[in-house]
Amino acid sequence: MIDSINIAESGLLGFEAGLRTISNNTANLNTPGFKGSSTQFTDLFYADSSLESDGSPGVGEFGYGLDTLGTTLNFTPGQQTSTGDPLDVAENGQGYFVLQNAAGELHYTRDGEFKFDSTGTLVSASTGETVMGLDGNGNLVPISLTNLGTHAPKATTTVAFSGNLSSTTTADTVNNVTVIDAAGTTHTLSLALAAVSGQAGTWNVTLMDGTTKAGTGTISFSGGSIVSSSGKVAVTYTPSGGQAMPLTLDFSSNVTSFDSGTSSTLAFSHQDGFASGSLTGQSFDSTGTLILAYANGQTAKGPQLALAQFDSPDQVKAIGGNEFAALGSSGWTIGAAGTGQFGTVAGGEIEGSNVDLSSEFSNLVVMQRGYQACSQVISTASDMLSTLFGIWGK
Q: Which partner for 151 in 137, 169, 262, 277 could form a disulfide, CB atoms 3.0-4.6 Å apart?
């Protein structure tokens, strides 16, 4: 009787452990990147009499109850959900994001909720640990905005024009010609055009900075279209107090010279320079590369997220905080999204928990019934002992 009570008690303890696992899974139903687990059971040893020739329990053997081996993790991906936060990322393959704590230890997570801290370093929004990226040599480095807060200006090299220059007029002026120097300063110039006497379709062009000539050249038209060899005019403009700027005045596209009376529509179209710009936004592309947006309309690429992948579930342990640690010094592969065995990265999305609530409820019923059955065994054994004691007392 006592053995029966002890065996049933081991069942109670085992089903209690199973209920705890179910409880933990259910509580983390909405935890980003959470990986559910299941409790593993085994039967306890048997009496050592009446063994078969191969050492296995004989037909007359009695077991000694239930043992709990521990839990195993379920690494299947969870469903991805759009968050609208450009720094949230989800990995579409089997890779894990790499984090480093203050002690320099590496941890791994599927929780891609990231943010930049006050120092401009990318960290996990959940734990505050540093998110690791890859440098040009494939080494793990922090992802930082250091020296990326401002986009440097680019001096204008080409100034393009479009429209029609009337073939029946002898002079025209194009105002509001914008160029940007190497320091990012904008200069507004003008273009003076004068028909060359005795050479139909030929024009002298002069770039003017106020009343100062900045450069001259010649363009020619044939049948109303620009002669290709004269479509680009090279000049050098030197801003006041600045450095000389080689410029190409481009008339090769969308510039004509037909009879339109005294009215010309020739105008400044665009130029290829830009001023400096401050950082206005950050996001990640499908390769996990940080994309930086600036107020001057330009974008630039920053560091790339590092990803890790384990060779075997036996090399992983859960440490809380939605993170995992490596068991041993090998078995993990470091790489980048879109290369080798790693999947792509989805920006603005988060991977949810992989807990299946219907399965958890089904397991809950099994654990509950098992617990009730074991408690009934204890109750029955107790009744039998009471009966035995009653007989002995008579």
A: 277
Q: Which of these, 7, 90, 91, 77, lies nearest to 36 by C-alpha position?
A: 77
3-state secondary structure of 201: coil
**HSE (side-chain half, CA atoms, 13 Å) at 227:** 12
Note the pLDDT tens digit of each residue in 192-228.
999 999 899 999 999 999 999 999 999 999 999 999 9
CA–CA distance, 200 with 217 (Å, rounded to integer): 16
Phi, psi of 190 (to 5 degrees): -140, 165
In whole angstroms, give the CA distance from residue 160 to residue 62: 94
Question: What residue has token string 């004989």?
Answer: 58
Q: Is 273 exposed, middle or buried (0-12, 13-18, 19+ CB in 10 A)?
A: buried
**Contact between residue 325 and residue 319 where contact means Cβ atoms under 8 Å apart:** yes
Instruction: Classify 294 as helix, strand or coil.
Output: strand
10 Ramachandran zone, left/alpha/beta (phi>0; psi -120 to 50): alpha
Structural domains in the chain, CATH included, are 2-75+354-392 (no CATH), 80-148+295-351 (no CATH), 158-271 (2.60.98.20)
The span from the CA of 66 to the CA of 14, in Å, is 7
Rounded-to-integer distance, Cα 351 and Cα 300, Å: 27
User: DSSP letters of 328-371?
Assistant: SS-SEEEE-TTSTT---EEETEEE-----HHHHHHHHHHHHHHH
Q: Environment class of residue 264 by beta-carbon count within 10 Å: exposed (0-12), middle (13-18) or buried (19+)?
A: buried
Nearest in space to 178 (alpha carbons), one of 203, 161, 193: 161
* Cα-based angle 362, 318, 123 (whole degrees, multiple of 5): 120
Q: Which of the 8 DSSP states describes residue 392? A: H
**Residue 37 φ/ψ region, left for φ over 0, alpha for ψ in the -120 to 50 degree band, beta for the rest:** beta
The pLDDT confidence band at residue 54, using thresholds 50, 70 and 90, is low
Instruction: State the Cα torsion 368-371-372-373 to the nearest 10°.
Output: 120
Beta bridge pairs of residue 245 = 237
DSSP state of 187: E
**For 299, phi and psi rounded to 5 degrees?**
-125, 155
Query: Is it the case that residue 167 has pLDDT exceeding 80?
Result: yes
